[in-house]
Design brief:
66 residues, alpha+beta, 3-stranded antiparallel sheet, two-stranded antiparallel ribbon, 2 helices, 5 strands, 39% strand
Length: 66
Amino acid sequence: MIYAARIQDGKVVEILAAPSVAWCETAFGGSWLEVRKDGSIRGKYPAIGDAYDDSKDEFVSQEADE
């Protein structure tokens, strides 16, 4: 089981536990990324509304955008 975040228009809109990213894409459509609660990939564990910077492959907190 992994955690996956759905990215829409550069923002995190959903996070869930799932068997795989491919499963999320098949079951729900859209763009999904694996995330880890310890923040060991993509900079941090995202929150709903956080931005995703694809050039850095990192999540950016909402507060950092303001």
